[in-house]
Amino acid sequence: MEENLIPAHELSGGDLLFSIIATLVLMIFSAFFAGAETAMTGASRARMHQLEKDGDKGAKHVNWLMAHREQMVGSMLLGNTFVNIASSSLVTSVVLTLFGSAGMAGGVILTTVLVLIFCEVLPKTYAITNPDNTALRLARSVRFSVRAFSPVVNAVAWIVAMILRAMGVKSQGLVEDREEAEEAAHEELRGAIDLHHIQGAVQTVDRNMLGGILDLKDLQVADSMIHRKNMVMLDADLPPEDVLDRVLSQPHTRLPVYKGDPDNIIGVLHAKDLLRALSRAQGNLKSVNLMSLVAKPWFIPDTTMLADQLRAFLQRRTHFALVVDEYGALQGLITLEDILEEIVGEIRDEHDLPVSGVRQQADGSTNVDGWVTIRELNRAMNWSLPDEEATTIAGLVIHEAQTIPEVGQVFSFHGFKFEVLRKQRNQITALRIAPVTTETAQTD
């Protein structure tokens, strides 16, 4: 009766040897499935894409597997589960044959140790350490396994979907929404850039440039424009001599021209056009018709995304646009250089005025003009102040304080202390910013 319950005692010498060899082979397959799954999910998609473009056949198989990730993971799990169960049964049979029923507990322990070390931890650790190289070496075999197991994997997926549907759970499609996929790709790039920057492989300047490119799709023209209060404009009624002096005294080559009211922009004067006309008139400025040199202004809404405006600049082959709000009121101006500065940082030439609005103090604090944008300040000081609710540093203080502060008031938020230094009417014109120390935080 006991012999029928434990047939493994009847293994002959040949069967015993075969079982041991079969167990070793199954454990090798188990290690293959476990390591392959880890390598395929951990391999760099960007590197595999580039290797495929360079003609690497292994990378082509890896990219196919990444494109069929669900089938790949399901096949690896199916193969790994099958060989682990089979190897466990064989190990148990071998132990019972050699040691009898008394070795049952030892067989379970031995099987657990062998599977854990050689079929799980060892291959997965190696795959995590060398994901790209491991994926390239195993890709062809993994793809063959996926195709071989696909009928079973599809059947299992169908059964799971039916069970979930019976439970009232709606399974999402395998194809992501295009916007969600785009957002996920951008976040993945941001994470990779920040990770390499922390590890020292990417310098701060390069990190900011790459991040600036990704930020363009989230920024509006209003976030980067020159505000109307800082615009340099020309009055169409000025004498020609005054117009020439004003043009030559400014670092800008394009100046908006208004008539009567500064909101009434009638055109844009290019300094080169004025100088060419002056040259043709042999220096006789009175004979130059300034209004004939003024180009038609280009107005754009302040809600235009920077990425769209960059493309518009390139298509229209012009680098200057005036920004208006939904009511048509002038808000500021935007140039191609302003957009490029969002990527590469502040661009200065020999004609730019040396005013940045950020002045570091000997005591560790920083004096900042209220019009300085939060993005520019973060780049200059390597800070991370939020810019979702406000564009300028003055706007951030007003938003956080929920009031228009008075000169001398001090606020602490986002890890910094903000002191209002100057104010003009309801506008904050200067602030002192300093990191909040532990003692300051306790005092506040």
Overall SS class: alpha+beta
Q: Helicity level, as a percent range?
A: 55-70%
Reading the helices and strands in chain order gives HHHHHHHHHHEEHEEHHEHEEHEEHHEEEH
Major β-sheet annotation: 5 strands, antiparallel
Biggest sheet, spatial arrangement of strands = 8-9-12-11-10
Question: What average pLDDT do the residues reach?
Answer: 83
| Alpha plus pi helix count | 18
Q: State the end-to-end distance.
A: 83 Å
Strand content: 5-15%
Shape: elongated
Low-confidence stretches: 1-10, 350-355, 438-444
- What Rg is obtained from the alpha carbons, in whole angstroms? 35 Å
- How many strands in all? 12
Give a concise summary.
The chain is α+β, with helices and mostly antiparallel strands. The protein is about 55% helix and about 15% strand. It has helices spanning about 1-5, 15-40, 45-55, 55-65, 70-100, 105-130, 130-165, 180-200, 205-215, 220-225, 240-250, 270-280, 290-295, 305-315, 335-345, 375-380, 395-400, 440-444; strands at about 225, 235, 255-260, 260-270, 300, 320-325, 330-335, 360, 365-370, 410-415, 415-425, 425-435.
List keywords for this structure.
single chain, 57% helix, disordered C terminus, alpha+beta, 444 residues, 12 strands, elongated, five-stranded antiparallel β-sheet
